[in-house]
Protein 1
Amino acid sequence: MRKTILTAILALSTAVPAAAETIRVGMSGGYFPFTFTKADELQGFEVDFLNAIGEETGDDIEFVTMSFSGLIGALESGRIDTVANQITITPEREAKFAFSQPYVYDGVQVVVKAGNETEITGPESLKGRSVAVNLGSNFEEVLRHLPYADEIDIRTYESNIAQDTALGRVDAFVMDRVSSAQVIKESPLPLALAGAPFDGIENALPFRNDEEGKAMRDRVNEAISTLKENGKLTEISEKWLDIDVTKPLAD
Amino acid sequence: MSCNIEISGLTKRFGQNTVLNNIDLCLKPGERVAIIGPSGTGKSTLLRCLNFLDAPDEGRITLGDLKVDAARASKADILALRRRTGFVFQNYALFANKSARQNIMEGLTTVRGWPAAKATDRANQILTRIGLADRGDSFPSALSGGQQQRVGIGRAMALDADLMLFDEPTSALDPEWVGEVLDLIRAIADGRQTMLIVTHEMQFAREIADRVVFMEGGRIVEQGPPDQIFGNARDERTRAFLRRVG
Amino acid sequence: MNALDIAYMWDLVPVIAGYIPLTLFMALVSMVLALILSAMLAIVRVLKLPVIDRGVAIFISFFRGTPLLVQLFLFYYGLPQLFSFMTNINGVTAAIIGLTLHFSAYMAESIRGAILGVDRSQWEAAASIGMTQGQLLRRIILPQAARTAAPTLMNYFIDMIKGTSLAFTLGVTEMMGAAQKEAAGSFLYLEAFLVVALFYWGIVEILSVGQRRMEQYLGKAVAR
């Protein structure tokens, strides 16, 4: 018995990949339709995207799912090489990480319980109301930079923000437009878009800001360019989102 | 015959209180010594110091070739002393997690490193001697007070000790069990086991002891053959004590 | 909102069940290690061993005084920034180490209480036949303390099983992580969390039956 446990521990601790040929990709597994499981199978936009990158660069792609709040820590501590979870480029993050080129162009969207969209029509209507955002996401920052941020009751969630909005625990949640539309379309929750997207955002893959990270970033960047050119990226976008979100928004 | 067990200058203090004051005592091989005296006079402490259950502050304990200086006793000294003295507790203190047989075997297997089969044989012999051959598998909680104390004595017997120490072995017992325990001690005494017994059973002390020691206030006041102590004590304190208990 | 989607829940059963071995593995290994560690900590405290006693007191105070999640994050994400070799510790191992350290602090206090609850005469009797301190602890005191502490320790084991659900924050997909990911795809949160809750409940109930049996057995062996 003792021996089997020891062997198991050894097996687990040696299972950590060290080869440079493997890109360890962290994701929450909890962000439909980008990363989620069905019948225990990990899938989504990000999964297809990273697998396509792997095919281009020849690297093995290893997916590591963990709570969203753990992802950045895992990246910093070197447990994963990048995060594929619709990470938005912000000045703070750019100072810390080496970002790939953007692969999703999106906008910030307010979502409310169905029926409330006549009352809440955009970010201005959030004054005096409670708004949920995912812990660790950049939408909290977006809200805090609004001129009337003081009047908004911002609540950070580990997960399940759509659920709590539908239940009426918060008046709205803020997420990117693309996934908001998906949530409304796919989920049985009674939710509605409130107004138009109000802030353009670009999502990309962050890598550690060191030699190794940058080398990997450069390799991945090349692959993204190829995927953009050969239409593969558009294909993935349309498969999961029905629309192409991989081209810059027209100003 | 000269002493092979010698206690000299044994002193024990609890804080300011000197409980044992410069005790000298000497036992010849096979000698059975009873210690009597008022409560709280250091009788039990003397026994406990001989086994280092209480560490004496000063004095020397000599057990055959083992010489222990109380002030400088090493762990090895203490273990050696304990392995050569058997201690019988007032409240039996049987190992609650072990059966009667295991209580007796424990010192043989764990301390002496005997193989289990040999220790079991020896334990079974002892169980027969203490009249509990059929109760070897019983746990202490299933035994009467008298039976428990007999196992307690059996546990001490198993050590084949140079000296057996009995600390008021019957005073916690219900009256109906006192007889069987005294009978067992008497049988051990008849085998000329060297022993020191602290007891309140004066008749019993008179009967089995070669020598009776009277203690008071942490000192030995008087000692001598039972007939002398009980019939013709020289010291007034001894006579006063015996008048009270007699 | 709609009624429960029973068919979906039924589909999730094999998915979540597939993670039971991992959950139990983490809990069992942590429990065995925590038992050993906590017994050692408790002994240090009971014997008041110089110097290390102070260290153990601080250890226990820290691990009882901070949330398990904070400890896991510190250990898994924080310390590797100081000690790069710690990056090689994977999520399962980190979760096991975290659970072990956290629960051994609690368990040490239970075991210490149980050791102090063993009658003084048991120590003296064991010492009187010449046992060393190690022998008397191992043969006489700890077995008796274990009986007193067993129900409490079993409760900690149950807490530990539930505590493994935090391993998802370390990138270990266990029962809870699997349920979260499934719910993300289906939006059937109630169903997914209900299934996983029923699994935890079922496991704990089975253990509770075992716990009652064990207590009856121990009660028979040593009626006091």
Protein 2
Amino acid sequence: MRTPLFIICEVVVATVLYLLFRHYGNDYFFFAGYTVLQFVVMATAWNILGGYCGYVNFGSAGFFAIGAYSSVFFYTVGQNVQDMDPGFLTSVLHVIFPIPVPILIVFGGAFAGLVGLGTGYLTLRLRGVFFAIATLALAVVIETLIVNWEYVGGSRGAYIIPPNTVPVFGPYIQYLFVLMLVMVIVGLTAARLIERSRLGYGFATIRDDELAAEASGVPTLKLKLIATVLSGALMGMAGSTFPFYLGFTEPGSVFDLSYAVNSIAMPMIGGTTSWVGPLIGAILLGTMQQVATVTISSVANLLIVGLMLIGFVIVAPNGIVGLWQDWIAKRSKS
Amino acid sequence: MEFSFSLLINAIAAGLLLGGFYAAVTAGIAISFGMLDIVNIAHPAFIIVGSYVAYIINAKFGVDPILASIVMLPAFYALGAAVYQVYYLSFEKRGQESLRGLAFFFGLLFVTEVLLLIVFGVDYRSVNAAYIGPSINIGPIELPLRLLVPCAAALAMFAVLQIFLSRSFIGRAVMAVSQDPLALRLMAVDPTRIKRIAFGISIATASMAGAFLIIIQPVIPSVGRDYIGRIFAICVLGGLGSLPGALIAALLLGVLESLTSTFYGPSWAPAVAFGILLITLAVRPSGLLGR
Amino acid sequence: MSAPLLHVDQVGKRFGGFVALDSVNLDVAEGERVGLIGPNGSGKSTLVNCICGTLRNETGDVIFAGQNINTLNTHERTHRGLARSFQLPRPFMSLSVAENIRVPLLYTVNARGGHHLHGSELDDRCVELLKLVALDKKANKLPRDLTQVEMRKLELARAVAAEPKLLIADESMAGLSHSEVEDIVALLIRLNQRGITIIMIEHIMSAVMTFSQRLVVLVSGKKIADGKPDEVIKDQEVVGAYLGQ
């Protein structure tokens, strides 16, 4: 399928989904759906670096948080601008602030991408595990910075009061839902484009054998940095609407370990070799968690995610997509 | 904050004591990551399990936590050997340790934390022992026994490990297992068996490190996460696979963290380890004592 | 005489206290077929790694096509026309045989100025290269389905796909049968006749003697002989080094 056609398909599916939700669902559906879509973006983002290049990022929560706090920061600046005395400068600022959410998404992505670039530049020359370890510690340090940054609320957290309704979309949550749908489309399209391009071949050679990749002319460091930036930026984008979603942002909720675990578990369980895997994994695990949080407890369902992750990496290394492919192969043989 | 000499010297002393404890925390990773090339990021989770085991024994039978952790060494060793067996069969043998092996340990870390959360809840747990509370004073320096005792025990454990690794046959095989597989074959030992033993030992150290931890501070299930950055920072700074290097790095980090929390506030301390880790990786990936 | 294609000047490399390469000099002219031999641990692989940029030489210079390439990364050296095959084949395991060949086409041939390969041209070139090593029937297989010889042929084809000026074939024949060795030697000579300069590192003496126009001997990180093959193997020092081993 050609890319324009693929995008058209995505838009059609997204539109149908939105209309179904609008017609049959209530706000709760949109709240739950938003979370699942957010995980689709996170899983897809993780997989660009983890699945395609074989570099494990444990710091998903950190990148997510950068996006979230970039929005909190610009929102707070906007609030302060309103309190300023009138003057030439403030009248200019009044035009700029409050910054619309779609632009905040771009900002969140840019900052997270930059942090990805920095971390990658320092650690990606070394063996892959050092990058993994650095990302593991990265989330801790970003949390430390934010806890100590009073302007964005520090350890107490920050309130963002979104308007109740938005023109065209109606309730604010529906607006956020649509924005997240757009991010899903962007993420999936990017992932699929990479797979089929020269970049995708390059990523695969990095995953398979970096020495041989270099010898074949693949600029491995550059490609790894591209993957890190893309992946980090997508995570930052997913995080940038979070403050508007909950209305209250605190380090504890943004740095929740469940982001890191889910964004690894979802691609691993779905399958890491193509864009379909993270999508399947995220929809499956995301929906399951939404249902289980209501019926059982949220702790118990995190336990299930963890156990599924361990089970899948041991028993089905290529995830659900891999199981499916094996099954097809077996059927065509018999 | 007003600068004072006694504040400085006390911060350094506390840092050194903390560093001794960090050495015990890192010993296991220095073996598994440094010598066996197994990136066991779940190590802190095993340490927290060690803390809770010490807590249970202490609360039920009133046994000293350090003694309890020594009694539990064989159990932790067996646990480690079992985990290695699963890891070996599922990942190392298939050559998938880099991506899936890491995800496996990450899953273990997470599942252990959640299980502890389900069983023990989010309340802080602590132990009772005679040395928790009092301090001894040397001039202006105050040494809390709560830090001194774990530090001394940690150093003793560290010394025993170092002697074992450098003197015994199995110890030397462990040191050779990742660097020199040929020599290992000449010694006619099965590398998988050596790795299983070594990994067992590395998890066994978590039993004691866990007891030290719960003596130093009350423990909740998520505390382990704070130690991931520290452990790897120390391990990398010390030079992979070098116990003496890890000890020096641990003392250094302890002092730096202690100074940071004394002069800038405790909320900044977690960033120190990460800073050290990144700088080491960027500037001197072979560690302090590396070539 | 024109400047050599490869000029290795006083290259040295140590690992800790161990001297792996001790001021090695080596000139290779364009179009030449050079054999590089030496006992295990004599520094052959280290020399190859220093030439290709996998390792950095601590002293001396590597000059390729008139330019000092000391500070270049491996992929930059490959772009300039320096390709190698690995001693133990290192195919990209998740890519098919044809896709393995495609990587250097995409990342080296297309990264150079000049004609870019597109769509069907790429496929044609892959088939052509695979035919050269008689692997065209296995184009869609994964590397794990190949035999030892096929794996080594794939390794060579991938290096050749980068259209190198200089190809370094690192022990491409270890563990192969007599006829398979002849196969690969014939292939290397064919490649040389197409204009590729080749350095062959090998233990199998019959192959070395058939292939080489010049023979270089490395012992304990030092070059001890360099000249016509039949003269070199009679050299007292060379005989001593091999017998003494």
Protein 3
Amino acid sequence: MKHIVIGVLGAAAFGMMATAASADTLGDVKARGFIKCGVNTGLAGFSAPNAQGEWTGLDVDFCRAVAAAVFGDGTKVKFTGLSAKDRFTALQSGEVDILSRNTTWTINRDTAQGLNFAGVTYYDGQGFMINKKSLPDVNSALQLSGASICVQAGTTTELNMADYFRANKMEYNPVVFEKFEEANAAYDAGRCDAYTTDQSGLYAVRLQMKSPDDHVVLPEIISKEPLGPSVRQGDDKWFDIVKWTYYALLNTEEAGITKANVDEMLKSDNPEIKRLLGVEAETKIGTDLGVGNDWVVNIVRATGNYGEIFERNVGAETPLKISRGVNALWTKGGLQYGMPIR
Amino acid sequence: MSQEAIRDDSARVPLIYDPRVRSAFFQVLLVVLLGFGIWWIVENTIENLSRSNISTGFGFLRGRAGFDIANTLIAYSSDSSYGQALVVGVLNTLVVAAAGIVTATIIGFLVGIGRLSNNWLIRKLATVYVELFRNIPPLLVILFWYQGVLSLLPSVRQSIPLPLGSYLNNRGFYLPSLTWGPGFWLILAGLVIAVALVWYVARRAHARQMATGQQFPVFWVSVLLIVGLPLLAFLLAGMPVTVEFPQKGTFNLTGGTNIKPEFLSLYLALSFYTASFIAEIVRAGVLGVPRGQTEAYSALGLRPGKGLRLVIVPQAMRIIIPPLTSQYLNLTKNSSLAVAIGFPDLYAIGGTILNQTGQAIEVVVIFMVVYLSISIITSLLMNWFNAKMALPER
Amino acid sequence: MQEHDMSWVRTEMVLAQAAPRSQVGVAAWLQKNLFASAVDTAMTLVALLAIAWALPHILNWLFFDAVWTGTDRTACLTTEQGGQLPAGWSGACWPFVGSRFGQFMFGRYPYDERWRVMLAGALFLVLLVPLLIPRVPYKRLNAILFFGVFPFVCFWLLVGGFLGLRYVETPLWGGLMVTLVLSYVGIVVSLPLGILLALGRRSHMPIVKLLSVIFIEAVRGVPLVTVLFMASFMLPLFVPPGMTFDKLLRALIGVALFASAYMAEVVRGGLQAIPKGQYEGADSLGLGYWQKMGFIVMPQALTLVIPGIVNTFIGMFKDTTLVLIISMFDLLGVVKQNISGDPTWATPQTAKTGYVFAAAIFWIFCFGMSRYSQFMERRLATSHKR
């Protein structure tokens, strides 16, 4: 009996356990054949499974871009939905290789929590949403004194809200939920007067309400929320790949290379484009990074450039209708600035 | 000669068949294996922590928490420390557990006695209650109350008015709150004196009954004293109390006391769930008292009410208390399910702190220590009570 | 010899008479059981009133006012909420359960592979039912198949990835199948582990005893969620970097360890109930420790505590719902996810409907098990009756 049980346990453990030494994430990823990417469980526009069960969104596409850089194939990635609470543990324990889950870059997370942020894929700020139908007189977050506010536990949102209300000497009742979906449902059911999260999230959450048109996002932005992908500390090579995938997405947009014209661009005479796409003679940019020299081409083929990813997932044509704003390229007055690839 | 042979024989038993040697060997092996396992875990943990740059130790408890908590019994704000946040969590756990224990005991005793009732209908109703609640997961009961029942209550504007100026809406239950003015100490003093008097009266009455057989209505006198003296003090002090009724504010009802739906659903669910187990324990306890005891007190001329109180219940309590203790412990442990509906108990707050600081081990150690202490203290209290109720064997 | 006058002795039997009116019949039953005294009458009336008030509400909500067909939430909304139903309507929204039934059972398990789960379920039943019926022979073989062989078959069927079956990753699992897998593995692991711990606790070796006591009491003193919390947040810290456990496996470890501590206490109760003479008898036969336990003590002790084991199992079955706190989707988790994460069916009645459905399923399982435990209790009690 005992032996049988041990045998069963052993078989189960063997079957379900994946071993990978995290000091060499790239090697492990290549040996495994796919990237493990941690995303939000369901935030429209950033990461949510669609009707066919495929993951879509800006955070999801970023992981696809990394997969394209490493494997030349944007589909070689497996997604894991993570709650705010288990996301850091999942990354630290190696359950995921990249955490691309609308996570705010803070010094605490960068240092004390053992994360390395590779860039800012979306500059965001925290806002409030209210039900205009039941609260027609509220036009500003400063009128929220005494309100019950739904928020997700363990996020910077929770902390910013506390700071904001304290700074403005207002009272409030936090109604804190473990999971994002619970907070949404509670707000929709009228348990809270206001809902707070990153503004992009508010627009996404609004779509999931029973009647989205009743809800308005208040104008105040109370914090800086630079959202970006992160990796484990102590693996510079992997960190570089993720970081430069992000810059490649920006640089291709700047150079006007899109999913549609990338094959034409390969024939371009422009030395900068040639260098970027790895068709420069004797180039070592890709191999130095640890991937193929055609990595940028693969990224653009798989996901398009940053602008395309943005427009496809959260842009004006999507239900979220978010304008580029600060997320435009630096050449167009935004903050997105890709370090030169050369 | 033969003696010698036996001794020789035993001396020749190989060490491997000597039970003492085997037992010692086995234990040493176990310790070595365990020690190795612990060493391996500690080594890995240290390496993992240093790799992800997480500091260790309980120093983080002094750090600023930064988040707010809705239900707080002690003064707490986002400026308070993580340690204070944890204290808030522990207190919330204790409050919901204590409230649940009291309610579950009351419902449980009623239903348990109902199951033994002569009345067929009452018996069946009690059975339905027990079979319904004890076969459903407690978490489901909590969620049912929270999302199924309490969320259907009307919004603040359409609050259901209840007697005494209280209201019920989907933000919870609003009660008028009492603010005591100066002279409050007089009422407290009255209460203390009343309790002391009751104790004295009870002792004297008992002594008198033992000596002369004459009885004294201790119960009614106690009620009179405990209600009367503080009331007298209250009137003497000039009614030093202001009642604050809940008023409609911009968003919520302001003023008064608010019992939040998270607390209500957790409290109701835990009470109803645990009561079904307590009912069964009570039933088993009463049935466990031999029938002869009933016949005996009838033979002595005691009326059923008195017989039940003086003969049956004290004996049934001896059977009831040990399993009752474990139900109390279960209820306390189940209160950690609060996290599913966002009630800030120890587990929920600990989880948030873990998320802010990454101090997984320290937080788990705190969980273990707190829950184990609660368990041990409850067990000790109930054991003391049990010992008091135990049959004084002569 | 004296002649006796026997004329006063009846020569034929008196016909049996009907019992007095006050002792038989409906009226007597009613008087005895419902209206025995004034207090009784009052209680009966109050209870009747309560039933008369509640029962129509419950039945109407469940059946008569319930919505049975529909494709999305508009089917279950009143006019003021944007649907067709009259204002003030309240009833179950059953099409919600109907449209999500597959998810409630299998989670996101791939549709084409669901036959594997059903096959595993069927095998489970085929092996379990004969094991539970005392009359059916071949108990030993049956038990070996159920506890020894079936886990491997089940693992192969559900996880796959070898012998021609496609690999199905555990994050796709969900619903009732996860509940059952967790409970099954929980009992298969916790029973032997619990026996070992119980033996350890009664062992004469001080270190073994101490360790067993520490483990049992520590686990029993904390809530299952903290054990699951440890399994999901601390286990990754305990192992070398990069070695990761599947989430389901972590939950399994947590549930199994937790259940084994409770099982140990149940088994210990059985061990203590075995008379000392049995131990001494085994010793006098010259049996070793494991022989003594395996052939003499354990068979008796385990038979004695079957009800306790079943009760522990019921508790574990209910406790599996707690995995939703570590973001896994058992039956309750899937129901909850569909209630709060999906606007398609968001109506005021959805939550109640979903939870009532989940409660019904849990209730059927638990009630069945508790009835079985009572049946075994009665069966086993016969031999100990004095």
Protein 4
Amino acid sequence: MNSHTSNKLKAGIVGYGYMGKIRETVVEEHPNLELSGICDANLPLTDADFGCPIFADYRDLLKSDVDVIFVCTPNAFSPEIVIDSLNRKKHVFCEKPPGRTVNDIKEIIEAEEANAPAKLMFGFNHRYHPCVNEAKVLVDSGRFGKILSLRGVYGKSGGLGFEDSWRNKKEISGGGILLDQGIHMMDLFRLFCGDFQEVKGFVTNSYWNIDMEDNAFAMMRNEQGQVAMLHSSATLWKHTFRLEVFMEKGYFVISGLLSKTGSYGRETLVVGKRQFEDETFALGNPREEVTYFDRDLSWITEVSDFVDCILNDKCVTSSSSTDALRVMELIDRIYNDDTKYKV
Amino acid sequence: MKTTVQYDDIREFEFKPGTTLTTYLQLTQDDVKSYFLSGLSLVDCDCPACLSDERSEAFSKFGLKYQECSNCKTLYVSPRPDEKAIDEYYRKSNAREFWNQHLLTETEAKRREKLFKPRVQWIIETIEEYFPSAQRFSSINSIHPPFLQELIENEFFKEIRIVTPRVDLSHVSYEKTGVQVVEDSIGSLSDKADAVTLFEVIDRLSDVDAFVGALERVLVTGGLCFLTTISISGFDLQVLWDKSNSIFPPDRMNVLSTEGLMTLFERHGFECIELSTPGLLDVQIVANAYKENASIEIPRFVRYLIDQRDSDTLQAFQEFLQMNRLSSFTRAVFQKK
């Protein structure tokens, strides 16, 4: 690990697919990061095309003087790359999920502990979306009382070629829609309510010809009695993101999500305040305030948090390896709770 | 950047009772004549928002000319009185005295409940999200006792200041509340602020650019500016134009477009956190103006909407205006970079 006297960290990216390209943009925009190498075995381009060295093998990138590695590879490859990077005393930012199994993240944590103070963070970027931030501020303010329950729907439209994606090959991804996308909603449930002790799940393969789930339904309850319901789906036929937070004195509805294509709809936070009325005349339609968000700063903000941890030697407390372990444990319990689930 | 849409039940007359407003407008017209049109030399100016000198004359109100900026569509008075003359007007004019004694007093309870309580919540929630360490607050160029009362009761800020050269504060005592009063312009301040409010302030400045420059110097990095104003991008102002009772000098000497407002603050190193037009009254204002005076020229579509469609449609239309930043009441939050 280099000493960071210049406040400029050299960053390398492993995996130059959809996420790798997003990370490249973030690195280029971030004042404390400098792109020092990209690794992708399938990259036909040269150093000159990128303005930085290109590697076919991530081990060669690790041998260079990079400080930070962004791991943007499919799930099957991420754990090994993360562990090797940590063992080389590199700081690591890894996309979710942190591998295919609970065991993967446990092994990663062992490497993290053995290589302190190297920092490790996972890409649970939904925590950093503006509507989630704003809802969290409102929850933490206490003005709406405590959370009673959560309900989350996160789904894809599917489409041509869906079955052929590496995300739907079990040997590479380790899980279906729940592990790929539902994991974000599970992470948000934990962000708002902490850990859940009771977990019930149904996991189905109802439409797509893949060897994993295309739908997962879960109900979870924690020691405070807060209940969270999840529907993670690849058969909604419309990109959908919706998280409802029901509180003692009102409710929040987060819907839509700022994304590259805008296909999840305008990112919106609805805040409703409870208005008890005479039941005879109740309209059940309280005053609401709706906020629309125009800019997705989640990618840059989460990386800024990570860089801050590195430069100021702070513990990673958001999207940490513990967060990753806990959410993987919950997902594992959902899979295992459905005894009828067979692919 | 974000925008907020609100649903509530407010009627125009709750904040601006008709007869009282008529008297206020008449007094303003008289005062404009005596303060600004009797021998005072007026100053020509460019667009206060984008600084463009390209413009076309829009109309005259109370003897002063409104110009429409060809670039950002801001509506502004030029030539206009200087800052000193306007300060004097707000300290001494009959119209202002009437505003404080009647309009504010008669609607104080409604304003506190429906305007200022939510406004304080808005400020607190925004600060908690974007600048949680903010402790020093200044209200610039405006005094709204119900607002300050709400703020004091919330005990959110350690330090609250009123900074204004425009209001005679001799009869107002904030000693017991701990509020510090500075009877001077923002440019005179040497202390920094973490958050400021500009409620209907931009509208009535002579030199907007210099003011926002001074504001930039007063705010700490990351500091927040909370602003309310009316925007010429708004539906009722665009439809009623010179017939709008909301456009008159000097209270509304600068009626910026949303684009102009963004340009102004970005030019001075601010980032827009929120720009919302959560107005509830645009459609109602146009409908009322049309009902009171059927000879007012309004577009056929708007006339049809008002004449033929029910209140649900009108409310949906108002919500559409809010969603697309097309209501005239504007609130914004700018953060110093």
